[in-house]
């Protein structure tokens, strides 16, 4: 009788462990989907702006999150197979993958946090130079498009203000055709509208584009850091104990 009771108890514990692993796997998938979503959102939402940054840390953090999210999908499937088949070797591989993903997400979060600390200084040093030296220059089409989109999206003109464009290689060149600012500075873009820099015609924003871009990137970096570190810690905390 005691042997039968013991077998029933072991079967009950096995079933409970299976359900526990399935629940954990579902939570793991949800966390992975969040990580993948944030990574894709960061890359696609404003990917044009990446060409304006001096370092690639911002993009690298996003791509790392995408990698981690993709691994979650594969690892989640592996975890389901391991639980259903009750294969210890698969479970060992599953928990090893969890550790790898935890480290990847942690790295992405830390990178985002570190870059957040020096973002303002980098923009101050490089954004104005990038805009004035590379705008509308041969082979710099990506930067030209990024600057045009930046000024239109954030309704700004110039790195610090519209006067920054007086030092621009483009404005002093023949293709500018008498413009004092690029046409993308205009509130309503029409051909050669950049010839007139009156506040009624162009965006005159205090702090210029640098303030707007810094705030935008800072918000994204906070999300990347919070999701990367937060989900990594949650996954570590929810990992089934042996």
TrEMBL record:
<feature type="transmembrane region" description="Helical">
    <location>
        <begin position="20"/>
        <end position="42"/>
    </location>
</feature>
<keyword id="KW-1133">Transmembrane helix</keyword>
<dbReference type="GO" id="GO:0005886">
    <property type="term" value="C:plasma membrane"/>
</dbReference>
<dbReference type="InterPro" id="IPR018499">
    <property type="entry name" value="Tetraspanin/Peripherin"/>
</dbReference>
<comment type="similarity">
    <text>Belongs to the tetraspanin (TM4SF) family.</text>
</comment>
<dbReference type="InterPro" id="IPR008952">
    <property type="entry name" value="Tetraspanin_EC2_sf"/>
</dbReference>
<keyword id="KW-0472">Membrane</keyword>
<keyword id="KW-0812">Transmembrane</keyword>
<dbReference type="InterPro" id="IPR000301">
    <property type="entry name" value="Tetraspanin_animals"/>
</dbReference>
<feature type="transmembrane region" description="Helical">
    <location>
        <begin position="91"/>
        <end position="116"/>
    </location>
</feature>
<dbReference type="Pfam" id="PF00335">
    <property type="entry name" value="Tetraspanin"/>
</dbReference>
<protein>
    <recommendedName>
        <fullName>Tetraspanin</fullName>
    </recommendedName>
</protein>
<feature type="transmembrane region" description="Helical">
    <location>
        <begin position="62"/>
        <end position="84"/>
    </location>
</feature>
